[in-house]
Amino acid sequence: MKTLMTVTLLGLGLVLATPAWAHAEGRRCSIQSIAGAWVFGTDVGQQKILPGGDITAIGTMNIDREGNVSGKFDVTVAEFGFFPNITYTGSVTVNPDCTGTLTFVTSLGTSRTDSIAVLGRTELWFMSQDPSNLWTGRARRISGPDDKSDDKDD
Question: For each successive 10 residues of the chain (154 residues), what is the average pLDDT?
Fold first, then answer.
């Protein structure tokens, strides 16, 4: 529990500090700057909806130039089960200061809203806004919207 609290506070600190980083570097973020294919993984978090408590996930995320999001993920809930290939759709907003919001609905009917921080063109950090479902995670871009190959290294 102490580790989870530390991770959550560090994530919050990152989100709060991101505008200062973006301003200091003179960069501005937008949906177009994060469009592309991403992979993500969450840290071990806690949820109160299903029995078991701890939860973790890994998956894919596709962001188009209009801010539409889609993908799939595998999730494991401690003492409850493993659930593969859960699809989701939603939207993302990105502010010029490189903060934003990701909202989506899964094929299981659950919905989430996360705060995001854009750490350059290839990395996003996120954290849940739901006090009943605490987790943080990171995403890495694997290709941009105009790339012809899925196996590019940045």
Answer: 48 48 63 96 84 88 97 92 96 97 95 96 95 92 74 42
pTM: 0.76
Q: Where are the alpha helices (DSSP H) in 26-77?
A: 31-34
The answer to whether residues 88 and 109 touch, using CB atoms and an 8 Å cutoff, is: no
Whether 41 and 136 have beta carbons less than 8 Å apart is answered as no
Query: Which residue intervals of the chain are DSSP H helices?
Result: 2-25, 31-34
Angle at 127 between CA 118 and CA 31, to 5 degrees: 30
Ramachandran angles phi, psi of 102, nearest 5°: -115, 125
Task: Please give the pLDDT value at position 61.
Answer: 98
Structure token pair of residue 102: 């990701």
Taken in order 135, 153, 97, 20, the sign of the CA dihedral is positive
Q: Most distant CA pair in the chain: distance in Å?
A: 47
Nearest to 138 by CA among 78, 58, 31: 58
The beta strand positions in 64-118, using DSSP E, are 68-77, 81-94, 99-106, 111-118
